[in-house]
Model the fold of this input.
Amino acid sequence: MTFEQLAEASGLHRQTLTNIARGAAKGDLRTWLMLARAFDATLDELLAPVWHDSAS
Done:
């Protein structure tokens, strides 16, 4: 999925998505909820890799 496609699916700006991808922004709860909806996932599913990586 391209940033353009994800922006359209999520309702977020492409720049917001690229900033998150680059690590220049973290996003707020609303951002992550919109991304989870775009990926048809729960917030837990979307963020699970982050929690598993930090627990190691």
The mean pLDDT is 92. Helices lie at 3-10, 14-22, 29-38, 43-55. The two ends are 29 Å apart (CA to CA). The first helix runs from residue 3 to 10.
